[in-house]
Amino acid sequence: MGKFLRLLLTAYILTSVLLPAVHADTKVKLIKTPNDGIQPRVIADASGLIHLIYYQGDAQSGNIYYTRRDAGDDFTTPGRINSIPDSAVAMGTIRGAQFALDRHNRIHVVWNGSRNSTPENQHGPPMYYARMEVDGSAFEEQRIISGNWPVDGGGAVAVDASDHVFIFWHSGEEGAGETNRNIFARISTDRGTRFGSETVISPEGAGVCGCCAMQATVDSKNNVYVVYRTARNGKQRDINLLMSQDSGVSFRDEILDKWTLEACPMSSMSFCETDKSMLVGWETEQQVRFLPIDLESLKTGEVMTPSDKAKSMKHPVFASSSDGSFLLVWAEGTGWRQGGTIAWQPFDSSGIPSGSVNRTSSEVPMWSFLASYYNQLEDAFYILY
Question: Burial of 235 by CB count in 10 Å (0-12 exposed, 13-18 middle, 19+ buried)?
């Protein structure tokens, strides 16, 4: 055999050996939420510290806890967030607590109140807000943030780079129906010490799906995003995006996905910023979907779905790596008083699948959903269930 042919053969063998390593499956690790908690929410900050909140207790009346961990350490001893015992609720799945992290790593949390914690002068369960003490040792006393509005579906919280705190919920006059519900916002310009009065930010006539969650976030350019499900005419359960480029002074509304349904699907949404896009995830016709929003132009991209579908896919969440690739995670088979299983698929920075859909028999507990984050030291994605 000639020297040139031997070199070609050697190159072929080396390529054949190395390719599986180069295209190895994305590393994904599944871990249980501490203390058998449910409804985990997680944020990985710029230093790699993992912040986690979760629910524990009876589904109709329980507590929310906060813990954190360094990339290689165990979670710290959890501390209770709600100052009034058993003043949170998990039943329905979509009422789980939401939290945001400001630039000082101070935690801001909102949650749906339980019925047994509703003050006598309230029309229904309120939405509560609590923030971490400045020294990080505990949380301040919880406050009603939703005025006298009864809150049923989930609310949301977000914080921008100037420590403006944005809180959102949806509600309507008692007995008025979903078509007359609105998205309300209250904004604090002093890190959550005081909040302005509530304002309606959703378009007239859109309505809001009464028992669905909503989600909010702020990107690295200080644009504010809110995603929710409408209830126009009691039939249109569309996914709408509200976006503000002026710190919440004004919002524009855009329909992302349409769904005609004369019922509430009790669904949730999620956001995740990558190196060049803001990802938005939701559920339509029992299938999870998502699209990217370009961070420069703020134009929405095409709707995408996992490459392998299942009968019932709900509660999508994301985790993004440092190179812009991301993991889409969702639950399958969950429902009213019913748990489910875990599924995920990796995507590259362009939104193209970089691996197949993976499914496990690990169970998502009843009334729960999933959370995910990227561990840069391990170059691995974590899924909490």
Answer: middle
| pLDDT bucket at 186, cuts 50 / 70 / 90 | very high
Cβ–Cβ < 8 Å for 158, 218: yes
Q: Give 16's pLDDT tier (boundaries 50, 70, 90).
A: very low
Phi, psi of 179 (to 5 degrees): -65, -15
C-alpha 94/C-alpha 214 separation (Å) is: 8
- The C-alpha atoms of residue 209 and residue 239 are separated, in whole angstroms, by 10
Whether 290 and 316 have beta carbons less than 8 Å apart is answered as: yes
Q: Are strands 380-384 and 28-31 parallel, antiparallel or unpaired?
A: parallel
Banded model confidence at residue 181, pLDDT cuts 50, 70, 90: very high
Q: Output 349-357 pairs: Cβ under 8 A, ≥24 positions apart.
A: 349/274, 349/275, 349/276, 349/323, 349/324, 349/325, 351/277, 351/292, 351/301, 351/304, 353/306, 353/307, 354/26, 354/325, 355/25, 355/26, 356/307, 356/308, 357/306, 357/307, 357/308
Q: What's the whole-number average pLDDT of the chain?
A: 91
User: Domain residues of the chain, as ranges?
Assistant: 26-384
The pTM assigned to this predicted structure is: 0.91
For the domain made up of 26-384, the CATH class stated in words is mainly beta
Rounded average pLDDT over 77-90: 97
